[in-house]
Amino acid sequence: MADARDIACALGARDEAGRIGNVLRQVGRAGVRRVALCANGCTDGTVAEARRVSDTLHMELAVIEFEQALGHDAPRAVAAMEAWRRWPESAAVLMVDADWRGSFGPMLADFLQDALRHPEAIMGVWGHVRAADLDRRWQRLVRRAGAPASLRPFLLPHFIPLSAFAWVSPRFVASPGLFFALTRRAGIPWRVYDPWDERLIGNPGRGIRSEARTLDVLREDARAAEMILFGGSGDPPPLWPGQRDWRAVESWMNRMRGPHRCRGHHDLV
Question: Which of helix, strand or coil describes residue 143?
């Protein structure tokens, strides 16, 4: 069975110089030694700090920098693509956030051990949306798609077997709703890791305006997933322009796709 050393971590970060070091140390505590970092319009020392800490941890670090921020979740897609391109022999890509705090490394190690026992499945974590109507919508969606009702595909961490990217391009990681829908349509199973304790990682508090934007994104993702999986009104999924800079993601991925050829639904965008 593969272990954490066979996993590549994908990180998107924007001005996280004060937190990126802890995230890398905790990822290292979980046994992961390869990290792809998308620096998303950073204006501080995020990249320099990531290089410094990864050197002390003897990690392999791949950095992709964008001068202009790509938008919500898009850096995750770029980092996932880079991890796949750079380390194609990896068993999976691990996705975490670059602003997590606390000593979550041991919990992450347990998450990965559980995931590696089911290497064919994507694994996420349980959670809730603060808007009750939206949370119920996601619960119905994932249950109807044949996934555990407690799963919230937009929450991290994610364990994504590299084999999944042969069917669904990592570009769709930029939209968790689409990625969930397309992987389920391709028959890739999803599991949920119930012991995950989100209180330990504690993302920094966000303002009311930021939280409202996040809820708008989650509604957009839910609508897109529903349309891919179950039909709907017949309108195209709200990919473009939506809440994300798809043009920048597509431009970068078209340059970097290299020898990999995705199959399945990657031509939808």
Answer: helix
Q: How far apart are CA 251 and CA 131, in angstroms?
A: 34
- Strand order through the sheet with 190-193: 60-66, 34-40, 7-13, 92-95, 158-161, 122-125, 190-193
pLDDT, one tens digit per residue, over 157-184 is 999 999 999 999 898 898 889 899 999 9
Cross-strand pairs, 157: none
Query: What CATH number does residue 206 fall under?
Result: 3.90.550.10
Buried b (16+ CB within 10 A) or exposed e, 11-25: bbbbbbbebbbbbbb
pLDDT (0 to 100) of residue 202: 59
> Is residue 93 a contact partner of residue 2, using CB atoms and an 8 Å limit?
no
Our measurement of the distance from residue 160's CA atom to the centroid of its chain's CA atoms, rounded to an integer in Å, reads 9
User: For residues 243 and 223, what is the distance between their CA atoms, to the nearest angstrom?
Assistant: 13
State the total domains in the chain: 1
Round to whole Å and give the CA distance between 195 and 111. 8
pTM for this prediction: 0.88
Question: Residue 100: CB partners within 8 Å, gap ≥ 6?
Answer: 19, 22, 23, 26, 201, 202, 203
Could you say which DSSP state residue 37 is in?
Answer: E
The parent domain of residue 106 ranges over 4-268
The predicted-structure confidence for 59-89, as pLDDT tens digits, reads as follows 999 999 888 777 777 888 889 999 999 999 9
